Amino acid sequence: MDKTAEKKQSIGSLLIGKFGVIAGLFVLCFIFSMLSSVFLAPGNIRNILIQAGTNSIIAAGMTFVILAAGIDLSVGSIVALSSVLGASIMKSTGNVVLGIAVALAVGAFLGFFNGVIIAYLDFPPFIVTLSTMWLYRGSAYVFTGGQAIVNLPDGNMTLALGRFIGIPYIVWLIIIVYIVCFIVLARMTFGRKVYAVGDNAESARLSGINVKAVRAIVFTISGFLAAVGGVILMSRLNSGQPIAGQSFEMTAIAAAVIGGTSLTKGGVGSIGGTLIGALFISALMNGLIILNVSAFWQQVVMGIVVLIAIGIDRYRKTLSNS
Fold first, then answer.
1. How far apart are CA 223 and CA 109, in angstroms?
2. Whole-structure pTM over 0.85, yes or no?
């Protein structure tokens, strides 16, 4: 391949990978603003950011897993189980902080459980997390008897309703989570290990990286951030719902893939792209709701968007390999 062709391919890959999703988000917002005068209203922009809260934070954890060449189908069930356990503690003690701490600890433990089975027993991530998806969801139903945990202390809604300098607490939480994740992946040794394990686990092992430990940790991170998403949802609903989090694993994967994280090759993607992907999904769903598009068609549109994102990922891989 001559240098001119190679340069064109690299530029094309860069445009698709780095700027394609941002351009897509702007185009989406432009279209919806033409179809509805309220879409770009400050109040609706705030709603889009708040609605992105749970998915964006779960997707951040999912990004760690996918970068390490894994997948986590249990995050939606972790949302449910961690939040109902946290809500139960919150209701019985009246202590909101303790309830949140329990929810986060449970989420981290459930993610760690996934990681240990996958890393140290060498089970496939898809099969393990598919199994624990049912295990954790069933446990949430058993624990609650299928009923929501309600009448939580008033302080539980502080996260959902509170603001700091006019910006909702949920938006601040998104910012904090993504800054931390960016620092870990882009500036810390562990982040380089995650990329190395995803790119080639055997080469990473031969270079001295503890591949098993890295895999266990990324699933622990995923479980912890799923629980953070569960805390946000618990605050917004002011209850612990065993049904909460259904299909959240799909929207989290979609956010990561739309943002450029590759499902076909580990070690490819960025946390910033995932945030844009989550905002894209939130804006898309918000716009469809404003236009009174039925929930059934919303799922159809979401499926089409994910297929397009996967197609772009395949095209980007073709560019890099040719």
1. 7
2. yes
Query: How far is it, in rounded angstroms, from Cα 281 to Cα 39?
Result: 14
Contacts of 7 (CB under 8 A, 6+ apart): none
CB 43 within 8 A of CB 49: no
Per-residue confidence band for 48, with pLDDT thresholds at 50, 70 and 90: very high
Q: Give pairs for 117-123: CB < 8 Å, separation 24+.
A: 118/70, 118/215, 118/216, 118/219, 119/211, 119/212, 119/213, 119/215, 119/216, 119/219, 120/212, 120/216
Q: Which long-range contacts (CB under 8 A, 24 or more apart) does 289-298 make?
A: 290/32, 290/36, 290/38, 290/39, 290/44, 291/32, 291/35, 291/36
Query: Are residues 55 and 286 in contact, defined by beta-carbon separation less than 8 angstroms?
Result: no
CA distances from 254 to 85, 93, 143 (A): 27, 38, 30
Per-residue pLDDT tens digits for 186-211: 999 999 999 999 999 999 999 999 99
C-beta of residue 264 within 8 angstroms of C-beta of residue 256:
no
What Cα–Cα distance (Å) separates residue 25 from each residue in 20, 277, 313, 314?
Answer: 9, 8, 17, 20
